[in-house]
Amino acid sequence: MKLTTMTQVTIDGVMQGNGAATDDRRNGFERGGWALGKGDDETRTFIAQTYQRAEAFLFGRRTYELFAGSWGSIDQMRAHPIGVALNEAPKYVASTTLTAPRWEDTTVLRGDLAAAISELKAKPGGELQVHGSGILTRWLLENDLVDEMTLIAIPVILGQGARLFPETGPDLALDLVESRVDSKGVAIQVYRPAGRPQYATA
């Protein structure tokens, strides 16, 4: 399977609290819900179709519990095309603390995470998708496990909140696979990792 990630980010790179205002208040974050209602019908269709082509889903614990309590539990959300895709596919969650997952067809990955994910990637099939899960996404990138990364950039600057990419961290060159901007200014870029960047010499 190809491991792909999809992340909503602000122009200043924040990914925290994109959904409901109360979803993620860590570290005094007060500006949640910045992605709600953003994007046009084409962008919403693109996102739904992405979920629908997943062979399986991989989550960090925090995102898993958020999704389990919404897409996995609320009837109206379960009936949505995204909810149907999530509920019909196998789900994997990287966690050392989750012991009793409440969402059907969930496997908790413990121990050697890199080996477990490499084993999943070696299986035949389409995409092993990661949505949100910022800590996990950063770790996957650092360990060269991401095959394709989709960033959905919402035209807003928050000035606070956890960012997808840390202030200091590994460097990575990217090849642009696809790019589009919708009628409401939401930009979608699909990238493939391409090794380390080239830097100018003195």
Automatic annotation (TrEMBL):
PANTHER family: 2,5-DIAMINO-6-RIBOSYLAMINO-4(3H)-PYRIMIDINONE 5'-PHOSPHATE REDUCTASE, DIHYDROFOLATE REDUCTASE FAMILY PROTEIN (AFU_ORTHOLOGUE AFUA_8G06820). One of its GO terms (molecular function) is 5-amino-6-(5-phosphoribosylamino)uracil reductase activity. One of its GO terms (biological process) is riboflavin biosynthetic process. This is Dihydrofolate reductase. Transmembrane segments: none annotated. Residues 3-187 form the Bacterial bifunctional deaminase-reductase C-terminal domain. It comes from Nonomuraea dietziae. InterPro entries: DHFR-like_dom_sf, RibDG_C, Riboflavin_Biosynth_HTPR.
